[in-house]
Amino acid sequence: MSTARESIEVAVPVAVAYEQLAHFENYPQFMSGVMSMAPIDASTAHMVLDIGGNRAEFDARITESRTDEFLCWEAMDGPQVIEALRLEPMAGDMTRIIAELQIDARELMPAEEHAVEVLNRRLKADLKGFKRYCEEHVTTANTTVTANTESRSASTGSASSAARTREIKPSPADMPGARPNPASVARGIASASGVTHAANERPAQPMPSNGNIGAHHAPERASRTRPTPQPPI
What we know:
Blueprint: E1 2-10, H1 14-21, E2 34-41, E3 44-51, E4 54-66, E5 70-75, E6 81-90, E7 94-103, H2 105-108, H3 115-168, H4 182-193, H5 218-225
Antiparallel strand pairs: 1-7, 2-3, 3-4, 4-5, 5-6, 6-7
């Protein structure tokens, strides 16, 4: 068995780095030489790798894990392949990842004189790919969430502003300097007193009891029409 060791620092929290490593479906995004990766269940996947021009096909399973601390997977059949990944939290939401790859180099690369060096370069390239994938993935996700949040806030603010504008919009009668309509005032007074008339209609006047002259003029009219008495001869 040949062993390769490498480490790298990734600008994401340890929980984010662990989450990406704990899912085999993410591996083609950063692992070089992956020809295919078919998840079987939550902890198992069928891998087809190209290692130094040689094809390696096997089922890989996560055999040990400690959340945000450690993860180990290995080939269940085919060539002997074991990879252990240790995660160490650092200041500023950084994470150090220490990877150790154990592989049967003679079986996978029988004609390669520098098989161990090839594995070391391969592991270093995989870690750099993981760093790039993880940091870009997290940055894109955070940007999307921020943009959606700002968009919702802007929409809510516009709606609230429009609602406030509608609520405080004054009517023409409430505008400064507006003069009341005399007809409207008159109708309001009449309505309040219980007296209503049709538009442009004067109220009917009561007929006097004595023709066109009021009753208080009747004695005066009688005195004017009574004959003047003549003196006796």
